[in-house]
Amino acid sequence: MYSISVSECDNVSTRIAGGTCCRVRRTMQCFGFHEAECDGCGSDEEGRTVGELLLPQYALATGGLARDHRPLITFPDNNNFHVVTASEYRRLLLYLTSVPSLLEAEMGFHIIIDRRKDRWNSVKAVLLRISEFFPGIIHTVFVLRPASFLQKALSEVSSKLFKEEFRFRVIVCSSVEELYEHFDRSQLTPDLGGELQYSHAEWIQQRIALEKFSTLMKEISTKLDEFMHEIVDCDMGNDPTQTKELLDCQESRYKSLKAELSSATSEGEELLSSMRTPHLTYNIISHVAAVER
C-alpha cells in the first residue's frame, strides 16, 4: 500500500519549513523521487536534487486554480529564494509544472509572487528568473508587493517602469483582497487569505507515493516490452524437447509478469483510495489524476 507516513525511513520528521529536514530528504531518495531533466540543468553535483529543492518551499504547486481554471504556481514569502541557483530553479520549475494534468498545463499558468515582507529587489529577482526560463505558458503574474512604507513607495515607482520589460502580463497587488477578482478563496492557501488547507508535508508524502508507483509501473512496462520482443524474435528450432522447454520458460515468465502487473494494479487502486479519503484537501486532486493516467 502506498499511503506513506513521514515516519518511514528513519522515523522521518515532518518539519518541512526552512529546508532542514534531512530525514525527509532521505525518504524522498529512498522512494525514487524522479529528477527533472532539461538542457543546461547540469548533473546532480551541480546543485540540489528535486527532492531537496521541494523541502524549503521556494515555489509551490498547491493544486489551486484561477477562476479561468488555469493552474497556479506560488512563490511564497519565505525570504529564501535568493539561495536558489539558476540550474536548481530550472530543475524545480520543471518538476512543479509537471504536477497539474496535461490539459491544465496546456492552458498555461498563473503565478503569484508574495513578497509582502521582503524588498522590491526580491520581486525583480524572481521576475527576471521567470522571464529567463519557465517551462510552460505564463498567463499572468500577480505580485503582492512589499508592505513596508519605503518599499511600497519604491514599488509604486518601479512597477510602472518594469511592466513592459516582460513578455507576460504583470499585475501588482497592494493586498491579498485584490487577488480575489481572479481566484476564489477556496483555491488560495491561508497565507493568501484563502481557505485551501494545503499541507506541504502531506503533499510531499503523496508525491513520494506517486513517484514510487510511477517507478514501479515503468519497470513493469520495460519488462513487458522486453518479453514481447523476445517472443517475436524467438527461434523455436526443430527439436521438440528444446521447443517445449522454451515454451515452458516463456509461460513461467508470462505468469510472473502477470502477477507483478496484477499486484501493481491493486497497489494503484489502494493509492487512489488513500488519496480520495474525505480528510484530504483539494491539492490532492492533481495527484489522483496522475495515478489514473
UniProtKB/TrEMBL annotation:
SMART domains: SEC14. Pfam families: CRAL_TRIO_2 (PF13716). The keyword Ribosomal protein does not apply. GO terms for cellular component: cytoplasm. Residues 42-200 form the CRAL-TRIO domain. GO terms for molecular function: guanyl-nucleotide exchange factor activity. Keywords: Guanine-nucleotide releasing factor. The keyword Ligase does not apply. This is Guanine nucleotide exchange factor DBS. Signal peptide: none annotated. InterPro entries: CRAL-TRIO_dom, CRAL-TRIO_dom_sf, RhoGEF_Guanine_NuclExch_SF. PROSITE patterns: CRAL_TRIO.
